[in-house]
């Protein structure tokens, strides 16, 4: 019976050690998740920052293109006759196309501003919020782990007393019942 008590103590010790290792592994996983999410949010910020830059460059290039050809058409004699031509004239179609390009340029400028002033700051906010949540989760997890280890250690400490009392009770009960036949 003493051997069983020692065996139980060893099993308890191994169990507590295994639990402790699992808890440490869980915290490592939480840290890795946090790092991955922070990296993903950083990548998204970089992506939209670059996309905003590209949209702005595209907008400027469209604006330059439209201005260059508008200046060119203003200097031609065809512009003087514009009022006299019908609605579907090539000059009117050309002017509509150039005005459409200017609108498209403004749209791309707006899109760039949305990326820079709305989307990227939101990713920053989400990243900060995620960091705070992971930090709080880790603190709570650590506290719960400490409490669990404390309870397991108390159980580990109390178990030899339990086994000793159980062993003594068993010895007494054997002494009370004489061996039969």
Automatic annotation (TrEMBL):
Residues 1-21 form the signal peptide. Pfam families: FCH (PF00611). SMART domains: FCH. Residues 17-181 form the F-BAR domain. InterPro entries: AH/BAR_dom_sf (IPR027267), F_BAR_dom (IPR031160), FCH_dom (IPR001060), SLIT-ROBO_RhoGAP (IPR051627). The keyword Transmembrane does not apply. Keywords: Coiled coil, Signal. PANTHER family: SLIT-ROBO RHO GTPASE ACTIVATING PROTEIN (PTHR14166). This is F-BAR domain-containing protein. It comes from Coturnix japonica.
């Amino acid at each position: 019976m003493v051997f069983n008590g020692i065996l139980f103590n060893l099993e308890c010790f191994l169990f507590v050690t295994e639990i402790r290792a699992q808890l440490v592994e869980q915290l490592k996983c939480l840290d890795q998740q946090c790092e991955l999410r922070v990296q993903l949010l950083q990548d998204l910020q970089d992506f939209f920052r670059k996309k905003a830059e590209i949209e702005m460059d595209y907008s400027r290039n469209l604006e330059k293109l439209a201005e260059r050809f508008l200046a060119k058409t203003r200097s031609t004699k065809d512009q003087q006759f514009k009022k006299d031509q019908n609605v579907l004239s090539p000059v009117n179609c050309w002017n509509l196309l150039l005005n459409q390009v200017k609108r498209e340029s403004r749209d791309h400028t707006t899109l760039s501003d949305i990326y820079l002033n709305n989307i990227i700051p939101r990713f920053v906010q989400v990243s900060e919020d995620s960091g705070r949540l992971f930090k709080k989760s880790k603190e709570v997890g650590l506290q719960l782990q400490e409490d669990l280890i404390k309870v397991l250690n108390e159980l580990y400490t109390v178990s030899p007393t339990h086994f000793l009392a159980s062993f003594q009770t068993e010895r007494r009960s054997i002494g009370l019942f004489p061996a039969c036949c």
